[in-house]
């Protein structure tokens, strides 16, 4: 038995977090959201033209996508988003057809157990020691905090390589800072202690 349309339209679900949008206030997946998704999770938003894939982001994650794109310290609460696959049938494989939304209100929705079906992979929560991705180009410490970023691969920046200061660079620095002989010697000995001076 094949149904042409799902019992509940896929457009009332959030693409990234799986939630049913009870107030029907989803946000269109703009280029900003699309890019944020790509850089955050490492793969693209896809198949949104298919009937079995939601086409909107919920309000909350739309806002987070925009903020994250601007370098704000916000994050998705999962390291892998909801993944959608074509259901084999609409009787026991379809996420949307197994939803029972008739008597749902916001309070019930908060505790609602979404269908467990093989046509979807539910979001995987962040492990507490997972580094949170930082949007490329928005933060200077991006390399330190996000080792698995998709933009990292083309870079030849190497965190393990220590930059050693040459004696002439140190002399320049001392001159620029207008340091006294005593202070410049202190600076040199400290740098040497920290093993940053190329001797
Ligand atoms: Zn269905
Ligand atoms: Zn959502």
Give an overview of the whole structure:
The protein folds into two domains: 10-145, no CATH class; 162-199. It is built from six helices and six strands. It has helices at residues 31-41, 59-69, 106-111, 142-145, 167-177, 181-193, and strands spanning 27-28, 56-57, 78-80, 83-84, 120-121, 124-125. A two-stranded antiparallel sheet has the order 1-2. It has a two-stranded antiparallel ribbon with strand order 3-6. Strands 4-5 form a two-stranded antiparallel ribbon. Helix 1 (31-41) crosses helix 2. The longest helix has 13 residues, at 181-193. The termini are far apart. 19% of the residues are buried. The model is unreliable at 140-162 (pLDDT under 50). The structure holds zinc ion (2 copies). One zinc ion binds next to loops. One zinc ion (ZN) binds next to loops.
